[in-house]
Write a structure and sequence with these properties.
Length: 220
């Protein structure tokens, strides 16, 4: 099923009164299925808040945000939770790996929760795709920061979701592994899915299908 992410005249203001701040201003754009989009710009320009708005964690003060033609602001808390389980997944900067599970088990755990058939083979495939065969039986605490980051990426890309939101997913990676991750984002999107990546990494931006540059909440 095609799942586009759409912004229509969306303005996002965080805070109230004199301490309020405009994070996004009159933003209109469609992030289509089958694409990788890089979101770039200086710190504080609204990039991460854009991802939070897609998840419904913050709501626009005007305009609409739709995921698969569903208006996020009208969803109940339980509907947003179901959306995150079934349609939209996030690769956070803090990774959220389960420390008591091995690298392989971390990927497998999400697949089992989603009821994915052939979960074992799928976990094997994505660990191999991210160059993690050699650490599959290691626990997060024994992995390097870059290895942990790739496990988190494998876990998200392996799942059933149609949209992946990634916040600085290559921050701990060298150039070789960054290129591996870019290739897997492209593989993911080539199956008709949508990948939106907040990044400061020029390699990631160069590998994306489209690049959006923000400054003070405004698309440049």
């Amino acid at each position: 099923m095609r799942v586009d992410v759409e912004f229509h005249g969306a303005t996002l203001i965080l805070g109230h009164g004199r301490v309020s701040r405009r994070i996004l201003h009159d933003f209109t754009h469609v992030f289509p299925s089958g694409s990788v989009t890089a979101i770039v710009g200086p710190s504080g320009s609204g990039k991460t808040s854009l991802l939070r708005a897609i998840l419904g964690e913050v709501s626009p003060t005007q305009g609409r945000i739709l995921v698969g033609r569903r208006k996020i602001a009208t969803l109940s808390a339980s509907e947003r939770s179901r959306l995150r389980r079934s349609t939209v997944t996030t690769i956070h900067q803090d990774l959220n790996l389960v420390e008591s599970l091995t690298a392989w088990e971390n990927v497998l755990f999400g697949l089992r929760l989603a009821g994915i058939k052939n979960a074992h083979a799928t976990a094997d495939e994505w660990l191999e795709r991210l160059g993690l065969d050699g650490v599959r039986n290691m626990f997060p605490a024994t992995l390097s920061g870059g290895e942990q980051q790739r496990v988190a990426i494998a876990r998200s890309l392996a799942g059933p979701h149609s949209v992946v939101l990634a916040d600085e997913p290559t921050g701990a990676l060298d150039e070789t592994n960054t290129r591996i991750v870019i290739d897997q984002f492209k593989h993911f999107s080539a199956t008709g899915k949508c990948c939106i990546v907040v990044t400061h990494d020029p390699l990631v931006a160069a590998g994306a299908d489209q690049v959006l540059t923000f400054h003070d909440g405004i698309l440049q």
